[in-house]
Amino acid sequence: MVLHKLADFDPQYRDSFEGKDIKGLSVYTENTDEKIGTVTDVLVDEEGHFRYLIVDLGFWIFGKKVLLPIGRIRVDYPAGRIYTIGLTREQAEDLPEFNERLAVDYDYEERVRGVYRHPLDQTRPVEASSAVETPVPVEGRTYQPTTAPTYDRDRYSYEQEPSLYGLNEQNHQTLKLYEERLIANKRRQKTGEVAIGKHVETETARVAVPVERERVVIERVTPTDAGQTVSSREANFQEGEVARVEIHEETPEIRKEAFVREEIRVSKVVDQETVETQETVRREELDVDTSGLPREQR
C-alpha cells in the first residue's frame, strides 16, 4: 500500500477544502487538553483517502515526527485545533519516529498501529490469524498483558481497522442533502402531413402556319412576229383541250406532342430551434441549531 503526501497527490487540494488547510493546526489530547504537536502534512493512499497526519512533536520532543491515524482525530477549525481520540501524550511519545526520507511500509505501519491498539477497543474487527501478548500503556492505568489480533500482511486493508482509519459516527457524521434538477428529454410526434398530387388544366393554344396556294394566270400578249405569214402546217387550227396545268395548295396539319415542362423534387429538411421552459425545483438546505456552541462548517 503506497502512501503519498497530500500536495504530491493533488497540488490543488486546498480547492476541496474551501481554502482551509489542515497543515499547521495544533494537536491536543481530547481528555487532558495537552498539546502534543503540530500537523506538518497528510498521507493519502492511491485512491486519495486520508490515512495519517504527520505530527511534529517538536513542542516538547525536539525534532521528532510521528503518524496519527485519521480515525483517531477530531478537527476543530474555528479553534484551529485537532484533538486526538484515545491517545495520550505518553503514547504519542512511544510512537515510532517518522522519517521523511524513508518509504512507509507495512512493518513500519504495524509498529505505529501497535501503539493505538488496546483491549478496550471494541470496534476493531476480530480477524486474528494468531495471538500475541501485548501490554498497552494508558495514562493513569496499568493493564496486564492481553491477547491482541495480528493481521495477514498480504491481505491487510485499512477497512479492517475502522477505529484507526474509519470516519466514526460520533465525530464524523454524514448527512445527505437532496435537490431536484430539471432533466430535458425530447419526444417525437406527428404534427401533420403534406399530400402532393397533379391535376390537368386546359387552354386554347394558337399557332400560325404559312401555307402556299397555286393559281393559273392567263395573259394575252402581242407576239414579236405578229403580222408575219405562217405555213398551213404551222397554223394548226383545232378545237378542244390544248393544255392542262395542275394547281396545288398547302393545308395546315396540327398535332399535339407531350414534352417535359419542369421537374418537381419533393424532400424534407429539419429546422432546429431552442425551446426554453421552466419548472419549480426543490433543494434541501442544512439547518444547524448549536444552542450557542461553536461549530465548524466546511
Defining traits:
298 residues, 4 helices, mainly beta, single chain, Photosynthetic Reaction Center, Chain H, domain 2, two-stranded antiparallel ribbon, 7-stranded mixed β-sheet
TL;DR of this structure?
By secondary structure, the protein is mainly beta.
Fold topology:
Blueprint: E1 4-5, H1 6-9, E2 26-29, E3 35-44, E4 50-56, E5 65-69, E6 73-76, E7 81-84, H2 89-94, H3 106-116, E8 131-134, E9 146-149, H4 162-165
Parallel strand pairs: 2-7
Antiparallel strand pairs: 1-3, 2-3, 3-4, 4-5, 6-7, 8-9
Overall geometry comes to rod-shaped
Give a quick account of the main beta sheet: strands, pairing sense, barrel closure. Answer: 7 strands, mixed
CATH level-1 class of the domain at 4-165: Alpha Beta
The count of strands amounts to 9
The run of helices and strands is EHEEEEEEHHEEH
Structural class: mainly beta
Radius of gyration: 57 Å
In helices, the fraction of residues equals: under 10%
What is the typical, i.e. mean, pLDDT? 78
- Assign the CATH superfamily of the domain at 4-165: Photosynthetic Reaction Center, subunit H, domain 2
The CATH architecture term of the domain at 4-165 is Alpha-Beta Complex
Strand fraction: 5-15%
CA-CA gap between termini: 29 Å
Count of helical regions? 4
Uncertain spans:
119-146
Query: What's the CATH topology label of the domain at 4-165?
Result: Photosynthetic Reaction Center, Chain H, domain 2
Plain-language structure description:
The protein has helices at residues 6-9, 89-94, 106-116, 162-165, and strands at 4-5, 26-29, 35-44, 50-56, 65-69, 73-76, 81-84, 131-134, 146-149. A hairpin with an 8-residue loop joins strand 4 (50-56) and strand 5. Strands 1, 2, 3, 4, 5, 6 and 7 form a 7-stranded mixed β-sheet that branches. Strands 8-9 form a two-stranded antiparallel ribbon. The chain is mainly beta and 298 residues long. The protein starts with a strand and ends in a 133-residue tail after the last helix. The chain has a domain at 4-165: Alpha-Beta Complex (Photosynthetic Reaction Center, Chain H, domain 2), CATH 3.90.50. It has 4 helices and 9 strands, in the order E-H-E-E-E-E-E-E-H-H-E-E-H. The radius of gyration is 57 Å and the shape is rod-shaped. The model is unreliable at 119-146 (pLDDT under 50).
